[in-house]
User: Which sequence fits this backbone?
């Protein structure tokens, strides 16, 4: 059965929907591997209305929803230049987040969001795309490796009061 997913750019009018899908998908992805306290603290901070409003109004950050009919089932966040979390390279785009509701895993929604990110990167004429993936998120690591990303470094990601290691990966476009 073919499902018809649309990828749509969003703006500040969509903050509540972004907050909902962000909290839900982050929880589905990481709750069983982290303490309830650390998850609650992170979700409250990272997905607060104020923080999302600031991010969505940043001219160098872009958010896209994956939509099935009128339902948001996943999302993508991209960062350009100084908005990147680490490298701040004007010749790169960071994929900060690709998250899909668990019930839609394996249905190519993540691939559609990924393909959108690569299309935007090519349109921006950047040399490469990079991202960070938690070293314990084997599913995501395999997904990015399958799509041509290679490991090049690592950095610390703080979840609540726990420091975790993210594997940094990049894909050369030129």
Assistant:
């Amino acid at each position: 059965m073919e499902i018809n997913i649309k990828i749509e750019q969003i703006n500040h009018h969509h903050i509540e929907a972004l907050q909902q899908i962000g909290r839900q998908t982050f929880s589905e992805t990481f709750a069983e591997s982290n303490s309830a306290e650390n998850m609650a603290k992170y979700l409250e901070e990272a997905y607060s209305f104020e923080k999302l409003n600031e991010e969505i109004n940043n001219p160098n950050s872009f958010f896209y929803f994956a939509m099935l009919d009128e339902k948001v089932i996943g999302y993508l966040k991209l960062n350009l230049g100084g908005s990147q979390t680490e490298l701040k390279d004007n010749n790169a785009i960071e994929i900060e987040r690709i998250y899909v509701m668990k019930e839609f895993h394996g249905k190519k929604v993540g691939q559609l969001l990924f393909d959108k990110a690569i299309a935007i990167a090519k349109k921006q004429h950047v040399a490469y795309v990079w991202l960070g993936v938690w070293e314990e998120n084997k599913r995501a690591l395999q997904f990015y490796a399958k799509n041509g990303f290679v490991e090049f470094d690592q950095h610390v990601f703080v979840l609540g009061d726990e420091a975790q290691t993210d594997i940094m990966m990049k894909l050369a476009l030129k």
About this structure: The radius of gyration is 15 Å. Strands lie at 5-9, 61-68, 71-80, 92-100, 128-134, 150-159, 162-172. The chain has a mean pLDDT of 96. The helical segments are 15-30, 36-46, 49-56, 109-123, 138-146.
